[in-house]
Specification:
Distance between the termini: 26 Å
Largest sheet: none
Number of domains: 1
Shape: globular
Structural class: mainly alpha
Oligomer: single chain
Strand content: under 5%
Number of strands: 0
Helix content: 55-70%
Length: 302
């Protein structure tokens, strides 16, 4: 546990294993991802003036808004796996449509409406308030040095309602993990395109699913050739070699390890309690059919 992480009297700080960090990510990620798929959020985005033609028109400003009115170059750096031109297409005029403060308010309104619809009677149970409190403790304990998206989200004012606190905590924790994942990719020597090609090569998601990142066929093929030259992809196909699979395993292990800080800070007992409390909310989101069955994150496969 880092010296900068918060320790409260009476808390249990037994060892938390990397597998537990991964389990909490699997439980919290769908709760965060409602932002990118719920009709209620799209309606709020449309009310601001963003196009409803595809989800990316709202995805980029809604995810980037905590950073402030930043440039496409800054968003490309923070998001990592998107082609710069794709980011510029959506971000160059995003802050002319609405300023970040308005976007932040709209995303909370959208999540509020979506959660109320998804959770129904679960909104009134004591488990929601307890889960929100535990998740917030973990989020506030996260060390955000070198993690720009986590830092920007944890600096936002916390909403008063428990369900929105849960969503904001889930957002901080997923961005904290994501920032750490980018560090692991950099250590592994994978540029943005190579990161996607190597992930597809282990079957984390189909190549078609990764097309949303905007890379051209030529750029994808060039990355594939670079990986093949390193012995990470079979020279006569798209499948990863054992060396390539081992590299991806190491990246996931490093990502889990780098995501441990918040959970070590709150301790094993609280971590396990939060996991138990999140089950019903996870089922509500997954069972709604709102999220796509295949994720570029490789949840359930990586």
């Amino acid at each position: 546990m880092s010296e900068n992480e918060v320790v409260r009297p009476g808390e249990q700080h037994g060892p938390v294993e990397p597998a537990q960090a991964r389990r909490l990510w699997h439980l919290l990620e769908p709760l965060h991802a409602v932002l990118y798929f719920a009709p209620e959020v799209f309606e709020e985005a449309g009310a601001l003036g963003y196009s409803a033609e595809d989800r990316w028109s709202s995805y980029f400003p809604f995810r980037a808004a905590p950073l402030g009115p930043v440039s496409a170059e800054a968003v490309t750096s923070a998001f990592y796996s998107f082609r710069p031109g794709t980011v510029a297409r959506y971000i160059d005029d995003a802050w002319k449509v609405a300023d970040p403060e308005a976007v932040l308010a709209a995303r909370l309104r959208g999540v509020d409406r979506a959660y109320r619809k998804l959770f129904g009677d679960l909104m009134d149970g004591p488990g929601l308030a307890e889960a929100a409190a535990l998740a917030r403790r973990a989020a506030e304990a996260a060390v955000t040095a070198g993690r720009p998206l986590a830092a920007a989200n944890v600096a936002l004012e916390w909403p008063s309602e428990p369900h929105l606190q849960l969503w904001q905590a889930a957002t901080v924790l997923r961005e904290h993990r994501g920032d750490g994942h980018l560090a692991a990719l950099l250590v592994a020597g994978l540029d943005p395109t190579e990161a996607l090609v190597s992930f597809a090569a282990i079957g984390a998601a189909s190549v078609q699913r990764f097309e949303s990142r905007g890379w051209t066929r030529e750029e994808w093929a060039a990355a594939r050739e670079r990986l093949a030259a390193r012995g990470l992809i079979e020279p006569d196909g798209d499948a990863a070699t054992e060396r390539g699979r081992e590299l991806r395993r190491r990246i996931e292990q490093d990502t889990d390890r780098l995501a441990l800080g918040p959970w070590q800070a709150v301790g094993q007992e609280s971590t396990e309690r939060l996991a138990a409390l999140l089950g019903d909310y996870w089922v509500a989101v997954i069972g709604s059919g709102l999220l796509p069955s295949e994720s570029t994150l490789g949840i359930g496969k990586a």
